[in-house]
Amino acid sequence: NAGVTQTPKFQVLKTGQSMTLQCAQDMNHEYMSWYRQDPGMGLRLIHYSVGAGITDQGEVPNGYNVSRSTTEDFPLRLLSAAPSQTSVYFCASSYRTGANQPQHFGDGTRLSIL
Amino acid sequence: LAKTTQPISMDSYEGQEVNITCSHNNIATNDYITWYQQFPSQGPRFIIQGYKTKVTNEVASLFIPADRKSSTLSLPRVSLSDTAVYYCLVGGEAGNQFYFGTGTSLTVIP
Predict the structure, then answer these.
(1) Model pLDDT for residues B90-106, shown as the tens digit of each residue
(2) Which residues have C-beta within 8 Å of that of residue B68, sequence separation ≥ 6?
């Protein structure tokens, strides 16, 4: 099993560019989510999905879009990159919703916006 | 969802037992306590979960007092490879948003 796979691992963008961070899981997990991690801020939830076709906003959703057309994939889109979006992004999944469900994380995408 | 409070950082020498405490005063009846470990340049990984009393696995032990308002993650005889950030997460089956907080950064010293 590959688990949770994130691509790319590193990316540098210019302000105003758009891009999509990819996340795929092969565990047939119902719940998927995106976090950003900044120094001293811990993990902050951007968006999450409780199943195909269902998404919702987390703590810091502004500037990001998501979609969930399949159970396996949950891409995160930056529409117009800003320097404040420089961060490490983690995708996670779990069998179903609930904080008691073990979350499986990818290894992250390190994004720099110039 | 219950918020948690952990020490920001801890240092320990190799071979010592390390105890990291998490406070969760407003834990709900159906909430579980889950700990994650994050190595540098990696995503967090689940290490242990409990509801009450004590849970032990090959990685750590988790101690939960009767009032469940706090919990302690215990790492026996730490090595340099245990240097990581440890997160305490509290919640149950309900809810879709989870608060990981800033975690505890453990540094193991040779």
Answers:
(1) 988 777 788 888 899 99
(2) B24, B27, B31, B33, B52
Q: Which two tokens stand for residue B107?
A: 């540094």
Cβ-Cβ contacts under 8 Å, B97 against chain A: 45, 48, 58-59
Amino acid at A75: P
Running DSSP on this structure, what letter comes out for residue A73? B
Taking CA atoms, B49 is separated from A31, A35, A104, B22, B60, in Å, by 19, 21, 14, 13, 10
Is B46 an interface residue toward A (CB < 8 Å)? yes
pLDDT digits (tens, 9 = 90+) for A31-42: 999 999 998 888
Shortest distance, CA B84 to any CA of chain A (angstroms): 13
* Chain A residues near residue B90 by CB distance under 8 angstroms: 99
Tell me the three state secondary structure of residue A60.
Answer: coil
**Which residues in chain B have Cβ-Cβ distances shorter than 8 Å to A5?**
none
End-to-end CA distance of chain B: 38
